[in-house]
Amino acid sequence: MAKRFTDTDKWKKPFIKGLKAPYKLLWFYILDDCDHAGIWIVDLEVAGLRCGFNYTEDEALKIFNEQVEILNGGTVWFIRDFIDFQYGELNPANRAHNSVIKRLNKYKIKTLTSPLKGAKEKEQDEEKEQDEEKDVPSYEDFKEYALDKCSELNFNVSESQINAKYQSWKTNGWRNGNGKQIKNWKSTLLNTLPYLNGKDKPQEHDFKNFDNVEYP
Hints:
Blueprint: H1 14-17, H2 21-33, E1 39-41, H3 44-51, H4 57-64, E2 68-71, E3 76-79, H5 82-86, H6 95-106, H7 119-134, H8 139-153, H9 159-171, H10 185-196
Antiparallel strand pairs: 1-3, 2-3
């Protein structure tokens, strides 16, 4: 028995609200009876027996025209929003997704772009991006931390140098001069300050993570 996601807000949507009861039931039947790629082999006679109503193809297509793509001379319907709702973007490396892609290719459905990514991976990427954005400081916070550390370590670094470093990282997509993503700006800045101070070599206590070192 296949299990699928359902939209609990579907009753509020204009499309569903505008359907008469027999066609509401038919639409939900199609969503359950289609395969895992959102492809339904049209059989309105069986659908009518199971739903308890008589359906005609002309009337059904008139109502569902924007929701489905007609294939094979009308013998197959593809539910346009099925893939996006059930899977998000597809990833060929995922065995379950790969099976869906094969079904879509069989019917030459080209609604998807490549390369494709699984919905879970996409969600993880979005969360990662949000985490990275959260670690980007304002200039005032950046300057305050830099000046505090310069005072603590007796570094002679000017505000103009601090501003230049901040603007450089910001312009570079919050990556340091070596092209590495800055994941912890405080640690990266602390490891960079010795070079702004004009030292040829930083003292041993200046470094905690050599991956964050930015050389001039």
